[in-house]
Structure to design on (532 residues):
């Protein structure tokens, strides 16, 4: 990728954790560029540091060495115009769904009244308008995660970080949300960094898939996904799609994550 | 179903409690009469009631005083206890200082400190309130610290990712998250505050139910002691349930309260 126009620029990033049994290298020599409006997935087995990479990019974890730039500026604190979706929905039990969505505006000291209309619009987009005044525990897992995506999108961030957002959902809900996410992304063209451990999900959603290996966490390969959009779910049964998933599975086999058949 | 029938069905628990109480009082009455126990040793419930009805204003005055002392002590303990807990959670220095102080103070039987408060604060209402605060503040501090600390780290990450201020994290995340724990501490503290008020009245002063008990004991007026004890029991029960009701009104979202309000996830009802 051309580095001069990249929105996110990661160079020689290392991340080492202190642990009771000595330092643990979570990430080693990460180089990655992400262009504006690009949908990039980071795919890897558990313990490969993919979530750590996201947390470094969100400035929730300090990096040990290397450089990390967003929009041409070295990262110092969480970037403006960023939204995060976590693996668990992290909705606050004591707030209604609408109030949960609005919290990202409150935290930024933005006037609540101005964002209420936008919050309702987002909830409508995700089919949650009837649940705006419900509490999180009254909703199913899929609906809760939809609400947490609304929360991340409230302030119209340029960058959307998603940390295995659908990992805890059942397969059908997951498919449903994949379709919805693709639709929203096509409409809004956010820059998305999407962490997942599902090969099919990564190929289905992304422009590029970053395949990671572990011990230490590093990039094994970056794959361009040249599949036409919009992508229907049935695309996953086509030979072109299969070639991508087979290729990625091959990488995991070669680096020893998946055992040979 | 009529309203009355609904109320009848819902009040089943209350009715069974009242029934058990009634049976116990009747047994007590029968025991006193059957064995001809002298009222000086154990007065029959009817005698206790008679004594109360002979001077209701007298008993109400003393109950009111004890109630006031308890409530003031409780409220100050809640405010002070939550403030201490916030200090302990946010400042390492305060954590060391206050924790050490609280632990060592808690190790002393606090009732034993009551006479000291009389020396310091005299024989008015102040020492009684002070003792109530001292006893009631511990459960508040301990439970609030626990509640403030047991926050999902991902919630803090959410706030940090929006560059939320420390004050926002406290007010919008930590504090509401701690409310169920704070209420748990308050339920213990309200009873403790009543204990403190009575101890204070025992040690000095000439008003309050504690004083009535002490005075009647000196006169060998056992029925009057029982009137005061019964009023104390009522007071304690009512105060506890007031905190309980406040909890279910303020925390309709909490797991422990959900059965009373909503009817489960709407999503599971086919939506």
């Amino acid at each position: 990728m051309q580095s001069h126009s990249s929105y996110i620029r990661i160079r020689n990033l290392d991340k080492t954790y202190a642990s009771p049994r000595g330092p643990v290298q979570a990430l080693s020599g990460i180089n990655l560029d992400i262009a504006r409006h690009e949908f990039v997935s980071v795919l890897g087995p558990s313990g490969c540091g993919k979530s750590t990479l996201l947390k470094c990019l969100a400035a929730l974890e300090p990096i040990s060495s290397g450089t990390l730039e967003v929009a041409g500026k070295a990262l110092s604190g969480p970037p403006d115009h960023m939204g995060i979706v976590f693996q668990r929905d992290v909705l606050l039990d004591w707030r209604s769904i609408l109030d949960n969505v609005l919290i990202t505006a409150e935290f930024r000291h933005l006037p609540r009244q101005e964002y209420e209309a936008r919050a309702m619009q987002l909830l409508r987009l995700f089919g949650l308008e009837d649940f705006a005044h419900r509490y999180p525990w009254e909703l199913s897992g899929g609906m809760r995660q939809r609400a947490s995506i609304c929360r991340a999108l409230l302030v119209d961030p340029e960058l959307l970080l998603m940390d295995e957002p659908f990992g805890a959902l059942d397969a059908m809900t997951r498919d449903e949300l994949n379709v919805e996410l693709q639709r929203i992304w096509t409409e809004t063209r956010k820059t998305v960094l999407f962490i997942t451990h599902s090969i099919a999900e990564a190929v289905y959603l992304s422009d590029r898939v970053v395949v990671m290996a572990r011990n230490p966490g590093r990039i094994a390969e970056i794959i361009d996904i040249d599949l036409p959009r919009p992508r229907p779910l049935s695309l996953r049964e086509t030979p072109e799609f299969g070639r991508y998933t087979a290729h990625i599975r091959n990488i995991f086999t070669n680096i020893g994550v998946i055992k040979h058949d | 179903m009529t309203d009355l029938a609904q109320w009848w069905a819902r009040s089943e628990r209350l009715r069974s409690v009242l029934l058990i109480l009634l049976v116990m009082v009747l047994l007590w009455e029968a025991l006193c009469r059957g064995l001809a126990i002298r009222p000086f040793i154990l007065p029959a419930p009817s005698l206790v009631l008679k004594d109360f009805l002979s001077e209701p204003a007298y008993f109400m005055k003393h109950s009111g005083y004890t109630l006031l002392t308890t409530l003031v002590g409780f409220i100050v303990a809640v405010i002070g206890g939550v403030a201490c807990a916030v200090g302990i959670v946010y400042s390492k220095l305060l954590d060391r200082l206050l924790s050490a102080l609280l632990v060592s103070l808690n190790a002393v039987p606090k009732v034993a400190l009551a006479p000291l408060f009389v020396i310091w604060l005299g024989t008015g209402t102040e020492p009684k309130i002070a003792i109530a605060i001292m006893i009631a503040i511990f459960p508040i501090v301990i439970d609030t610290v626990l509640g403030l600390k047991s926050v999902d780290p991902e919630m803090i990450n959410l706030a940090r990712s929006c560059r939320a201020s420390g004050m926002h994290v406290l007010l919008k995340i930590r504090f509401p998250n701690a409310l169920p724990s704070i209420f748990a501490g308050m339920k213990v503290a309200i009873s403790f505050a009543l204990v403190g008020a009575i101890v204070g009245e025992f040690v000095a002063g000439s008003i309050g139910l504690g004083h009535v008990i002490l005075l009647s004991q000196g006169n060998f007026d056992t029925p009057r002691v029982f009137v005061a004890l019964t009023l104390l029991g009522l007071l304690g029960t009512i105060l506890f349930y007031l905190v309980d009701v406040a909890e279910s009104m303020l925390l309709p979202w909490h797991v422990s309260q959900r059965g009373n309000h909503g009817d489960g996830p709407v999503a599971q009802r086919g939506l």
Notes: Helices of chain A lie at 50-57, 97-107, 112-125, 141-153, 171-188, 199-205, 239-254. Residues 85-157 of chain A form one domain. The two ends of chain A are 34 Å apart (CA to CA).
